[in-house]
């Protein structure tokens, strides 16, 4: 359900953003189109209409009707693209396909069907828009006593003929929209397929080609339905002077008395407008719809106070996971598995993962081998090449940003192949990578940025969730002699923590390998929590309670956070005073983190009690 809601929100916002871009890119030429359609004899052509309007009404005249046009376009595209998603899923279900794998014709049919719903918002808003755009001509030709505002147009219509008057021209709108959007979406998908390089995805053709495909979609639509649009505009604009004849009679009247040319009056500005307007529409839609970060910033990250490594080849340890009260477990193919056991670990994890994840209340992730090991691709193919696949991926030994980009891109290709044949795409894969070397530490900022950028690509299925400090390997890399206070690692811990928090990521502290020394573990865990780490790696179940208790804010802190967020919700100001202190957004975010952990712990207690 959450996925459907996210999908709805994403497509609704993407369609709204696309509609806004479409209006501002093309409104002047749309105004010229409506004027030429309804008063073809007043102007000699597009340029004359554009020039006269600019001269007599100024730039404002060309943007007349922008408010209803915005309402029309934003509401139309929001409804259109939400309905499109539903129609695509319906056609995918009927044809037993993946909705992202429909043919051009099937996509076109989905577009045509979705226009039935969008027409219900288009008709009233477009009626007001057209009247506003032709307002000066209606006034100068005596069809209106005085110019009106959009509100005045709506009020006079409702007063004269009731609310249903807002749906004058609805039949003509359906007659125009359904075939129109068939050709619109056929033209878009056909052009995108044409522009897709061999071996690439049509979602990856880039901004310019997407814009060109969007413009071509608009061209297909207008060439197919322009005469219908002329009649619709006539009916809607002229109905200000009283009830007009229906679609068919108006069509025959125009054809007989003004000639066929009148049915294409205004086509030129429409064709010119369609490339900037629909190009902007589709670029905005595509790049908003598929920016996973855009959606996942709203999804709450799992709390990972303790992250327990479980060697993937050790069935006894793996089958213990469902009985453990731990926040996060990671089935390991890397450091916890000897070289001669790598294949066994990989295959055992692939075999057991789904069952263990289903039975466990904790998050169950997997750790592959390092990109530099030469084993990572095989790990990804075996572990993520089938659905369902793990929801969390730990990537060790990231030394530079190319490696994290390679991991994200390879993972996306593997996953998209796995879900294509008829499966619903599962949730996002949360990636946590490890910094375990001097090079990795110095290049961490670039690695984080590269990972976020790669996960923001169209149809990416993963997001960067956090960074782990691999202290054992780090010490080996730098030749460090360990001390019990770990003062030699303070710089690395602070740099990893600071960089992770700068990008809103979780930071998971170093492992404490002496798993029988509970006091030392407690001290280091509390130190890490106070530094700002969000969790700690562990290697043994005996470490779970000590670490998770250390990463719980004390009761006063929780009380403070709850009251602060309550005060913030009431005040809704940027900065305000709370308990004598200045409170601004960073403090609010800190309070939210504390409450997030508090809620997680309560949920965990409730699950354990059941
Ligand atoms: C360290 C161990 C090898 C010790 O194992 P064992 O001798 O079996 O311990 P116990 O006899 O005390 O075990 C008691 C029960 O607990 C289960 N157990 C033990 N460890 C785990 C575990 N990790 N996950 C799940 N269950 C575990 C035992 O099976 C016993 O259960 P039962 O039979 O029912 O009584 C062992 O703890 C272990 O292998 N730990 C993981 C080591 C590991 O993964 N290391 C790599 C990760 S650390 C890292 O990567 C560091 C980082 O990269 C860096 O650079 O810093």
UniProtKB/TrEMBL annotation:
Q: Where are the Solcar repeats?
A: 6-90, 102-194, 205-291
The subcellular location is:
Membrane
Q: What is its main location?
A: membrane
Q: Which UniProt keywords apply?
A: Membrane, Metal-binding, Transmembrane
This chain's protein is named: HpcH/HpaI aldolase/citrate lyase domain-containing protein
Originating species: Clavelina lepadiformis
The family classification in the record reads: Belongs to the mitochondrial carrier (TC 2.A.29) family.
Question: How does this protein sit in the membrane?
Answer: Multi-pass membrane protein
Query: InterPro entries, per this entry?
Result: Aldolase/citrate-lyase_domain, Citramalyl-CoA_lyase, MCP_dom_sf, MCP_transmembrane, Pyrv/PenolPyrv_kinase-like_dom, Pyrv_kinase-like_dom_sf
- Which ranges carry the HpcH/HpaI aldolase/citrate lyase domain? 305-541
